[in-house]
């Protein structure tokens, strides 16, 4: 469900599902305007849930951090990739099985809560390996996973909480769980089943928990957040406060394009402008959002009228996506994505 032109992204939405890193906070610092915008959405009667691929912390810890930032959050409002991972584990191994865990407290607590026995050693003959990010994960942990996955005639199941290549931190962008999963993959020659974004398991858990009928998902990454929402059949908004910026947005693949593009979360409640796309008799195409106009002439995309920065980005994205050719076949003026 996408709001009609001129309506706000929140119109008609019953549950707002927000990513955390890059959307609500960066490390322990709130993203500007995020707290006020989410509190306003909650005050309007919408349920707010938080989806995270981060497997290193428990929902209790995450909810406590959100409360410190000024959000009214309870542990049950947090839907984490470890929670989705144990749902997958329950489909792959017998109840009470021994699971080799690579990860932190957030993953361990969910595995134990699901009734599985946790081990850190391949010598304990685990029935499966589950792998998630934690800052303290070491080479020795990755080696134990590799040892366990190489054992047995057919190989045991391997579930990864997520495969994010990077994670946003207050000091910059750092390697994510995808780099650690890749290291194990290199050693064992096969890939895991993935629970978190961009796979649907995490979204399915959230929809069921909140009984969502018309949800909206907000993320800062195209390759995990927006792709995952699209796979789950859910409208999405990309907020330009985290990993992906205008340059990545313009180059987004068709399955990773958001319904809305927001400068920050204040845009959730603001009227969303219509996109006008017209071609004149000479074959010149003009894409307009607000006062921003992008001219598509031949293979060139240029800025004809600037408008606001966010409308310029929206118009540029619409112009590229509707060009009918890959972005590398276009000459895109730098002011459209800088």
Specify the CATH homologous superfamily of the largest domain: HAD superfamily/HAD-like
Biggest beta-sheet profile:
6 strands, parallel
Helix fraction by DSSP (H/I, runs of at least 4): 25-40%
Which sequence of strands runs across the widest sheet?
5-4-1-13-14-15
State the domain count: 3
Rg calculated over all Cα atoms = 22 Å
Q: What pattern of helices and strands is seen along the backbone?
A: EEEHEHEHEHEEHEEEHEHEHEHEEEEEHE
Architecture of the largest domain in CATH?
Answer: 3-Layer(aba) Sandwich
The chain-level mean pLDDT equals: 94
Q: In one word, what is the shape? A: globular
Within the CATH hierarchy, at the fold level, what is the topology of the largest domain? Rossmann fold
If helices are DSSP runs of H or I spanning 4 or more residues, what is the number of helices? 10
Q: Quote the distance from N terminus to C terminus.
A: 30 Å
Question: Number of DSSP strands?
Answer: 20
Estimated share of beta-strand residues: 15-25%
Low-pLDDT windows of residues: none
Secondary-structure-based class equals alpha/beta
The first-level CATH class of the largest domain is given as: Alpha Beta
List the helices and strands and how they pair.
Blueprint: E1 15-19, E2 25-26, E3 29-30, H1 34-43, E4 47-52, H2 59-69, E5 78-80, H3 81-92, E6 98-102, H4 105-113, E7 117-119, E8 128-131, H5 139-150, E9 158-160, E10 166-169, E11 172-175, H6 177-188, E12 193-194, H7 201-210, E13 215-219, H8 222-231, E14 236-239, H9 246-250, E15 260-262, E16 275-279, E17 285-289, E18 292-297, E19 300-305, H10 309-321, E20 331-332
Parallel strand pairs: 1-4, 1-13, 4-5, 6-7, 6-8, 8-9, 9-12, 13-14, 14-15, 19-20
Antiparallel strand pairs: 2-3, 10-11, 16-17, 17-18, 18-19
Helix pairs in contact: 5-6
């Amino acid at each position: 469900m996408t709001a009609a032109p001129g309506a706000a992204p929140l119109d008609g939405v019953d549950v707002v599902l927000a990513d955390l890193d890059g959307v609500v906070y960066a490390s322990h610092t709130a993203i500007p305007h995020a707290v006020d915008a989410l509190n306003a959405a909650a005050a309007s009667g919408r349920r707010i849930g938080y989806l995270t691929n981060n497997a290193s912390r428990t929902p209790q810890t995450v909810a406590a951090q959100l409360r410190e930032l000024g959000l009214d959050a309870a542990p049950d409002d947090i839907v984490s990739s470890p929670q989705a991972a144990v749902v997958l584990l329950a489909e792959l191994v017998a109840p009470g099985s021994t699971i080799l865990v690579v990860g932190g407290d957030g993953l361990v607590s969910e595995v134990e809560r699901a009734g599985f026995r946790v081990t850190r050693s391949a010598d304990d003959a685990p029935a499966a390996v589950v792998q998630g990010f934690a800052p303290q994960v070491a080479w020795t942990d990755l080696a134990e996973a590799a040892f366990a996955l190489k054992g047995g005639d057919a190989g045991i199941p391997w579930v990864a909480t997520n495969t994010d290549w990077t994670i946003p931190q207050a000091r910059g962008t750092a390697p994510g769980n995808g780099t650690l999963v890749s290291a194990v993959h290199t050693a064992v020659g096969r890939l895991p089943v993935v629970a978190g974004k961009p796979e649907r398991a995490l979204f399915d858990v959230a929809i069921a928990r909140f009984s969502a009928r018309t949800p909206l998902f907000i993320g800062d990454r195209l390759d995990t957040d927006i792709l995952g929402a699209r796979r789950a059949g859910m409208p999405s908004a990309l907020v330009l406060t985290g990993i992906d910026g205008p340059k990545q947005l313009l180059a987004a693949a068709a399955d990773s394009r958001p319904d809305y593009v927001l400068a920050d979360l204040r845009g959730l409640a603001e009227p969303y402008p219509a996109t006008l796309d017209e071609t004149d008799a000479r074959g010149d195409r003009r894409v307009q959002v607000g006062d921003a106009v992008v001219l598509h002439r031949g293979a060139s995309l240029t800025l004809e009228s600037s408008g606001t920065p966010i409308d310029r980005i929206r118009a540029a994205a619409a112009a590229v996506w509707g060009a009918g050719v890959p972005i590398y076949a276009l000459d895109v003026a730098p002011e459209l994505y800088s």
